Amino acid sequence: MTALTLSTAAAPGLRADAIVIGVAKGAGSRSGDLVIAPGAEAVDKAYDGKLAGVLETLGASGAEGELTKLPAPAGFKAPLVVAVGLGTEPDAKAGNAADEGYDAEALRKAAGVAARALAGSKKAAFALPVDGPGAVGAIAEGVLLGAYSFDVYKENGNGGKAKNGKAPLAEATLLGGKPRDAAHKGAVARAVAVTEELNRARDLINTPPNDLTPAIFAGLAQTAAKEHGLKVQVLDDKALAKGGYGGILGVGGGSAATPRLVKLSYTHPKAAKHLAFVGKGITYDSGGISLKPAGHNETMKCDMSGAAAVFAAVVAAARLGLEVNITGWLALAENMPSGSAVRPGDVLRMYSGKTVEVLNTDAEGRLVLADALWAASQENPDAIVDVATLTGAMMLALGSRTFGVMANDDAFRSAVFEAAEEVGEPAWPMPLPEHLRKGMESQVADIANMGERMGGGLVAGLFLREFVGEGITWAHLDIAGPAFNEGGPFGYTPKGGTGSAVRTLVRLAELTAAGDLG
Asked: Which of 125, 153, 244, 340 has its CA 20 to 30 A from that of 144?
């Protein structure tokens, strides 16, 4: 990953390949003007205070994600200035006090855009607005997430320069960050821990399914557990059969790559609360007998994004030493068609004892999650949060950048939504309408795995709720939209696996550890 340093040095004398500054759209009395954001005063002075005009001539407007390059002025040791848009500047008259500074997410996005644009550079100095440790942490996260690349399968890859490609930005200096300030150093340390694990999730999501079977995924979890002092338990297909995990076995039964259920446990001696995170880990989803049509299965290596997010969040919590106990459950299977695959019309007996009529084998995620949710419930945690690329219906409802949040408790749903918004992960609270439960009634089993077509994402949430232990607070994150970016990169989000929900889970753990979540 990109190396980070803090510095109070002045931009003109810093040896680097580029100086990154922020620009914004003016607010209040400066509405319509391009303004130079705090942190870039020395750069602006070197242009005789005319930097805004120069950038406007080059077409800059200050819009989020906009990037403009220009030669550095005489006397600078860096040859290039990179101006990146922050959106509209804070405006006290608009109810957003100017002394509150720029929004953390705007700083993350700006730093990410610049870091990605500077791929191939050895060093860049970021002179973005810093008004405290929160801004330092946001800029650090943006840099480390924006500089991400996945080149291990390209010639001369393995984290180095890929053929016909550029290596990620090697080093970033955050100007305005105080290297001797404990809060600033702590913000960087947190950013490094969270982004390294989020990028681990991205790597897993981007890994081809022939190199990430359930057994391989479980092995990676075991390695990480040993490294970070976690307890780990892996149930293979024989143990799953002995334990009666009919959902995971049913989904994984059609593949030569047998399923696994992984339990990762992080404990803290002073913890007063226990969270359980449950992740859907379909390492490849063909749809099974209900085979996906061409054009719908090429990216289905990403169907384990929920398990990747849970894995990353538990390890991040351990690295941060949070005072909360967390158990991560990774429900891992490959959904393939074969003579041993589950068929439409089959009835599975789940770990909970309930029976499920399988009407569509491509509604498999809820089957593996059901077993894992019931297993998590047996430990009676204070709350359970599951994460899954569960339904195309959620993408139709919320698009490709926002995940849905459902829960059996309105206050907890709001808390999860607010945590997601706080860390910059777009989310939206969704209902669980009781009338949709009727559509899952079965003549031969306790419940069917399909219900009404309309509101399919909500139907899936209602199905999962059936397998949460009585009296346990639970939330469901359907990340089908934002988990895998098939379009071009934006902000600090790359093409491919995104690591969606990792930061939300970590924030929930932090809030719980601080006693601020229930």
From this structure: 153
